[in-house]
Structures are given as C-alpha cells and as structure tokens.
Write a structure and sequence with these properties.
The protein is an all-alpha fold. The protein has helices spanning about 1-20, 35-65, 75-90, 90-105, 105-155, 160-170, 185-190, 225-245, 245-265.
Length: about 270
C-alpha cells in the first residue's frame, strides 16, 4: 500500500511539472525585450531631432508670418503653425519619458509614452492635412475678403493698417486687386487728396500717395503675390506635418510590442 501511495504521489508531481509552463526569457525570440529597448532608444534620438525641426518650422511661421494674420479671413493659418509648435515642443519631454520608461521597464510610463506618441501623430497629421486643404481654399478666401479688409479697416484698425502697409511695401503692390481700389475706401473719403497710402509708393515719403502715376506708385494689386506667398508657405507646413507624422507611428508600434513583451515576462 505504501509503495502504491508513493507511486501515485510521484506521478502526481510529474503531471504538475508538465502542466507548469516554462517562463519566457527576455531574449526568447527576434523581437526580444532588450532588442526592442535598443530600437526605441535609437527612435527617441531620431524623434527628438525631428521634434526640434518641427518646433523650429512652427516657431518661424509664428514669428515671421504672424504679422500678416490680421489680413486673413479665418484663423486657419495660425492654427496650423501653433499645432506644429505644440507637436514639436512635445518631442524633448516625450523622449525623456520614453527613456525613463525603458530604463525602469515601468509599464505605466511606457503606456503614457505610447499614448503621447499617438497624440503627436494626430497633431502633426492634422496640421499637415489642414495645411493641404487650406492651400487650396486660401486663394478663394483672399479674393473674396481681402478687398473688404482694405476698404473697411485701413486707418481705423491699427493692426490691420500696419499689416497692409507692410504687405504693400514687401510685395511691391497697391490695393487688393489694383491701386484704384483705394478710391472706394473710408480712408480716402477722410482725405480725398490722398489717392493711395504712402506704402504704395516706390520711394516712400510723406504724402507721396497724392500722385498715382506709374512712375510714383505700384499699380498691380496685392491679392496675387500675397496668395502665392501664403500658398508656398502652406505647402512647406503641409510637407513638414505629414512627413514628420510618419515617425511617431514606428515608435507607437514598437512601444506597444514592448509593453506586451514586458507584461508577459513579468506575468
């Protein structure tokens, strides 16, 4: 009886050992934990420099082109720039979060890192897609609204007045469609002797706008050159946004795989 009992106990132990699954190693397959951590460290470096590049493009747009924003009918253009600034600004702190999560193998940190990468992807793709859309729409908006902005707000709104003067001087143009647009403005009615603003003059002097001869002022309108300038810049923003949005996808995928791997190793 004792021998039979021992045999039953030994067979039970053997069956239990067979049922226990062997614990997975960190380097059990090609996509091991250590390999994924190495890949994500390299990705973090690339992502950080890409984020700095996006931040520079967005900040440059805000700093240099923001002066023309009052002349645009909608806030779409500055919104694109600010979206890129936010997406680019997240690069360095997100890399720091990723490095901490990789070093400690903390699943909560990795999960936050993964979600923020997804959020960055949405921001950059949204900014790029919006820039592509607005690159087509801005021409119709400016043709419809720029003349009204000139006629109704010049000399009455300081911000718009400065933007119009800067645009006419920089693009060497006068009026929205042509120089004679100023004859219908509230500014001209206030002082009919001034035919065009001084910023229309080829050589700007005080009250030089009293003469509208081609030798004195620019006769071409501002809609065409200004639209062309905005569209060229929107193409750059669209390329940066859509192009850089590809990078977070790889980090998102690798961090998801690493999260699952660490969970299986621990469990």
């Amino acid at each position: 009886m004792a021998e039979e009992k021992k045999k039953k106990d030994s067979s039970a132990l053997l069956s239990k050992k067979k049922k226990v699954k062997p614990r997975k190693s960190r380097d059990a397959d090609c996509l091991s934990v250590n390999f994924l951590k190495c890949v994500l460290h390299i990705f973090n470096v690339i992502f950080m420099f890409a984020g700095i590049g996006v931040l520079i493009v967005g900040a440059w747009t805000v700093a240099s082109r923001h002066r023309f924003v009052p002349l645009l009918p909608t806030p779409t253009y500055p919104a694109i720039a600010y979206l890129l600034v936010i997406a680019g600004g997240m690069g360095v702190p997100l890399c720091a979060l990723g490095c901490c999560g990789l070093k400690t193998e903390n699943r909560t940190s990795l999960l936050c890192y993964t979600y923020f990468l997804l959020f960055t992807f949405i921001l950059e793709l949204g900014a790029g897609g919006l820039a592509y859309y607005y690159e087509v729409a801005v021409e119709f908006e400016l043709k419809a609204e720029l003349n009204n902005t000139f006629i109704a707000n010049y000399a009455l709104d300081v911000v718009v007045t400065d933007a119009v003067d800067l645009m006419q001087s920089e693009f060497k143009c006068c009026g929205a469609s042509r120089y004679s647009d100023w004859r219908r403005s509230a500014w001209h009615e206030h002082d009919p002797r001034l035919l065009v603003p001084d910023s229309c003059c080829k050589t700007v002097t005080s009250r030089c706008g009293m003469r509208d001869h081609p030798s004195n002022i620019y006769h071409n309108g501002c809609v065409a050159p200004f639209t062309s300038h905005i569209r060229e810049h929107l193409i750059i923003l669209a390329a940066v946004g859509v192009g850089m949005s590809v990078i977070p996808i790889f980090g998102f995928l690798f961090s998801c795989i690493l999260y699952v791997k660490i969970k299986h190793v621990i469990d």
